[in-house]
């Protein structure tokens, strides 16, 4: 079956202007200014009043739930298919977090397979906050080489009282195993780093980069908008060649305590001369959003929201005057490049047909296609999880 989407303003994320996009099976066959096919086998879609962008790539979602830091009643639930699809997310990487006792990598992998069975592209990180590393096969390299969905390791927690307080040698071993596993399987072998609020910030990563041959680009530290001091250190980290990731899920209390809203963070990053190809957003969806008091006691808890991923990009455009073709890179081409997902993050021939149609003025998500299949049309999910109401 062929689908021909006519007259969309294509932001690929390079601005291509008005284009026709032809989709065959799971792939984009062609993007040209005029494609005409008259055939009963072609589904025609008029997108004259729409902007087409690549499907979003969310590098951190806790698909089986997270949290639990406040006891058994504070474990967050697992993600629903439509939490992702209505948020425009067609590619995601799933991770465990603090809890690797009641949550397992087996469960994470099977949940990823479930989302893939519905038509998404869901990958996983091996490991968790906890060290020594828990894996599926018993070995990180084997997980990355032998399990199709496994593309790296994370979240490895540093500078956080909830982490395992790794020594630099431990982090170096994890990073080299992930790197070699990635090389052997043609994957990124990326090391997703959960950056906590501790004062040591990037020092452990810097130590590994200084004392070993592992490049700074092997690391993908997230939550860098947690506070102003960390954010400034993050800008310096990119000047040394590193990538940083900002977390879009947040709440008003976090902002009061100094967290930087992603849209404002991206504006500040670009104004400081930062390279758009070194900064990304992720939702941290279905994580808990805990706040601790000075004594380390949990004082509040909410659930991370996948819809925040594109909401922050929209705020970049509507409130921070960042062009869409720039801001959208933070959730499309740049995370796809960091994660080395070659067919993702860009609208071009031979890439996977993952795309989002946006309303031109409001930038609301109107339709979502993943691997050639419409999952959302006219803001309504066409496919729901088996147990979703
Ligand atoms: Zn985290």
TrEMBL record:
Keywords: Hydrolase, Metal-binding, Metalloprotease, Protease, Zinc
Subcellular location: Cytoplasm
Residues of the Amidohydrolase-related domain: 266-374
GO MF term list: beta-aspartyl-peptidase activity; hydrolase activity, acting on carbon-nitrogen (but not peptide) bonds; metal ion binding; metallopeptidase activity
InterPro entries named in the record: Amidohydro-rel, Metal-dep_hydrolase_composite, Metal_Hydrolase, Metallo-dep_Hydrolases_sf, Pept_M38_dipep
Residues that coordinate or bind substrate: 67-69, 98, 129, 162, 226, 288
Ligand binding (Zn(2+) 1): 62, 284
A Pfam family assignment: Amidohydro_1
A biological process term (GO) from this entry: proteolysis
Protein name: Isoaspartyl dipeptidase
GO CC annotations on file: cytoplasm
EC nos: 3.4.19.-
Cofactor: Zn(2+)
Binding site for Zn(2+) 2: 194, 223
Function noted in UniProt: Catalyzes the hydrolytic cleavage of a subset of L-isoaspartyl (L-beta-aspartyl) dipeptides. Used to degrade proteins damaged by L-isoaspartyl residues formation.
Annotated active site: 284 (proton acceptor)
Chief localisation class: cytoplasm
